[in-house]
Design brief:
CATH class of the domain at 26-40 and 294-369: Mainly Beta
Distance between the termini: 59 Å
Structural class: alpha+beta
Number of helices: 3
Low-confidence stretches: 17-25
CATH architecture of the domain at 26-40 and 294-369: Beta Barrel
Radius of gyration: 45 Å
Mean pLDDT: 88
Helix content: 25-40%
Strand content: 35-45%
Shape: rod-shaped
Order of helices and strands: HEEEEEEHHEEEEEEEEEEEEEEE
Length: about 375
Amino acid sequence: MSLKKKIFLIIIILLIILFIAWYLLGGTGSVALEIKRQDAIKGITVTGNVESTEDIQITAEVTARIEEILTETGNSVNKGEVLAYLRREEQIGEVTAASANIEALQEQLQRNRVQYQDALSDEKRYEDLYEEGAVSKRDLEERTLKRQELEESIDQRLQEIQAARGELKAAKSRLEDYVIKAPLSGIITDKFVSTGDIVTPQQTLFRLIVPEAIYLEAEVEENELESVEIGQKTLVIFDAYPEEIFEGRVYLISKEVNPVTGTFDARITRPQDTEYSIFVGMTFDATIIAEEYKDILIIPTDFIETEDSKTYVFKLINDFASKKQVKIEFFNNNAVRVLEGIEEGEIILRKTDTGKLRDNEKVKIIEYRKQ
C-alpha cells in the first residue's frame, strides 16, 4: 500500500472516531421530561393565619396578689371552672360576717314571733277579763301596746334581714372578683401571670380559645375575586407541620378589597378530626381548588418556546431535538395544559442552561425530570 493510501486511510479512521465520539459524547446539554397523563387541580395559592371568633382575654377586675393558679397553657377548661384565686381574706371575712348577721337577725325574728304569739294570746285573755270586769282598761291597753311593739319589731327584723341579704349578695359579688373563672369552655392558649404577681384591673391573665370557633383566614389577590366561591375545597399546609396536608373548605368571602394590599379575605374551615393541634396565630399556605381535571397533559412552562405568537416544544427523536408546534392553554404560573401536538410517552427537552435549542440539534441528556 502506498504512503498516500495509508495517510488517507488513517484520516478516514480518525474522522470515524471523531464522529463516533461526537455522537456518543457530544451534543447540547439538555433536561428531558417524559410526558404522562395525570389528574391535576387548578388552584389559587394563598397565605394566611389561624383566627377565632371566640378569642377571649380573661382579665382581672381588682388589684390584688395572685394566691393560686389552677391551670396551665394548653389545658382544656369548662365554663365556670376556676382558673386562679386572688388573695381574698378580707372579702371572705365580709361574706362570713354578713352571713352571721343574717343568722343572728333570723334568730331574733324567731324570738319576736314567739313573743308576739304570747302577747297576742295575753291580749285576747285580757279582753275577756275586761268584758267580765276583772281587769281595768289600762291593763288591757298595756297588753295591746306590747303586742303592737312586737309587730313593729317583727317588721323591723324583716327589713333588717332584707338589707343584710343585700349586703351578703354584694359581699359575695366582691368576693367573685377575686376568683378568676373561665367564661366559656375552651383551651387556655396563653398564661401571662404567675403565683405571687400583683395584678391590676383589666390586666390580661389568660387567653382562652374556643376550638369550635377557630377558622383559617386567607389573603387572596384581588384578580382572583371571581374565581373564589363558597364551598371550594382547600388544601392547607401549616408552617408548624410542613410535611402534612390538611383539608378545609371556603365558607365566607369578603368582597371588600384592601386598597393597600390589593387583597380580599376568605375564611376557610379548620381541619376536622386531626391529631395535630391548631392554635390561633399559626400561619399557613393553602391552595383553593378552582377546578379539578382528570387524565390531562400538563408540562412545565420552561419547556415551552414562543415564536411569532406560536408555541413549540422540542421532542427527543434519535438523540436530536425536533421542534414541534403545540396548542396549549394557561394552567397556572408554572405549567400549561397541552391540547394538541404531543402525546403521552413522548420525551420533550430544554437546555440545561440559558438559551434555546435548535431544530435537529444533537443533544446530550444531563437530567431526567419527573412530572
